[in-house]
Amino acid sequence: MAPRRSDERLCVGIISGAFGVDGRVRIKSFTEVPEDIGSFGVLESEDCRAKFTLTACRPGKDGVTACVSGITSREQASALRGTKLYIYREALPELAPRNGRAEEDQPEEGEREYYHADLIGLSVRWLDEPRTNGHVGAVFNFGAGDLLEIVWPVAQNSDETHSILLPFDRESVPDIVLDEGYITALPPAGLMPDPIAKKRRSKPRKRKRDDTQSGK
């Protein structure tokens, strides 16, 4: 895995729709404090063609509401629905040391921090039993802590995949090695899907010859 570059962009939110009639928008923020999305200065669209400055960010349902520079009507705000908001990585603060196993004397809460973009795409090495290595597909938080979506092929060279939501804690994810591009995973009991049962092919039954009909 290539080292993370300072010119790399991170997605910090996505505009989910209009709010009110004066051009405000609803934003699903990916920052730890949702309102902080307005403190990053100029944000860019995914294709880099549009730039946005957010002001008056306030907590709202499923995220925040905000004013967007140049947007003054509900129609304009509605047209931005689905727009992903990006910032250059170099504009973000450095986080705590990120590689290797956590020190045993570190506190359980808030021990290390990671940007979601650093985790997404990492390969997954299983510790519980041999299976095809997977990758981190996404990071979710439904209110009870971060969850890593782990996706892996059902079999080598297969297009079929399994996926689970793995708790992002030191028990389930003992190692995070960004420089080498992988994490180790130890899924809790009962989390993994049941193996796919192999279908048995039934052999056609041989019909006994009817001696009466055959004339014998």
In CATH, what is the class of the largest domain? Mainly Beta
Strand order of the largest sheet: 7-12-13-8-9-10-11
Number of strands: 13
Element-level helix/strand string: EEEEEHEEHEEEEEEH
Quote the average pLDDT.
Answer: 79
Radius of gyration: 25 Å
Shape: elongated
Please give the count of helices. 3
Taking the sheet with the most strands, its summary is: 7 strands, mixed
Helix content: under 10%
End-to-end distance: 77 Å
As a percent range, the share of strand residues is: 35-45%
Q: What's this, in brief?
A:
The strands form 2 sheets. A 7-stranded mixed β-sheet has the order 7-12-13-8-9-10-11, with no helix packed on it. The chain has a 6-stranded antiparallel β-sheet with strand order 3-4-5-2-1-6. The chain has 3 helices and 13 strands; from the N terminus they run βββββαββαββββββα. The chain is mostly beta strands and 216 residues long.
